[in-house]
Amino acid sequence: MAATLREGRTDYRLRRRALLADVREGRRSRDDVCDAHPDLVRAGRHIGSAVADACPICEGDALTQVSYVFEGKNARSRSGRAVPRESLARQAERHGDLTVYTVEVCTGCHWHHLVESFRLLARGTAVG
Ligand SMILES: [Zn+2]
User: Fold this and answer.
1) What's the gap in Å between 120 CA and the centre of ligand 1?
2) Is 52 helix (H, G, I), strand (E, B) or coil?
3) What average pLDDT score do residues 35-48 get?
4) Which range is least confidently modeled, 6-15, 47-56, 78-87?
5) Are 93 and 2 contacting, i.e. CB atoms less than 8 angstroms apart?
6) 64-100 pLDDT, tens per residue?
7) Domain total of the chain
8) Does 126 fall in a domain?
């Protein structure tokens, strides 16, 4: 396993829960939240990691998580690349420190939401 270190994790679960409550209670329409970009749906289908939980909107089993990596310090100013989760350590070794955004997407109904973001440092001691 490559020597990488995660730091600065931000969890978007609360925001996700609030959005789902809005849908359940009719403040947001389902169409409004099931508008994943075709590229994201495609990435979910081809390189996404399957999620054990059912989709919170359609309750189907097509929920996946896609990892987007951004190189360099000014992560938000560049466009990210979708990569398989298994390749994250290798990406960090090859390109240096990365900012990773994990996005969940349902390839059935096109629900999508940010799950977490963190920095992946190429140096440091190996972590599990
Ligand atoms: Zn769905």
Assistant:
1) 29
2) coil
3) 97
4) 78-87
5) yes
6) 999 999 986 655 556 789 999 999 999 998 888 899 9
7) 1
8) no
In a domain, 128, yes or no: no
Residue 44 to residues 59, 66, 83, 99, 122, Cα–Cα distance (Å): 17, 6, 10, 19, 25
Provide the whole-model pTM: 0.87
Residue 11 lies in a domain: yes
Residue 96 CA neighbour count, 13 Å, CB half: 4
Separation of CA 57 and ligand 1 centre (Å): 5
33 or 128, which is more confident? 33
Sign of CA dihedral 60, 57, 116, 72: positive
Q: Is 102 within a domain?
A: yes
Residue 50 alpha carbon to ligand 1 centre in Å: 13
Q: Per-residue pLDDT averaged across 94-123, rounded?
A: 94
CA distances from 128 to 5, 61, 108 (A): 9, 27, 32
Q: Give me the residues near ligand 1 (ion), CB cutoff below 5 Å.
A: 55, 57-58, 106, 108-109, 111
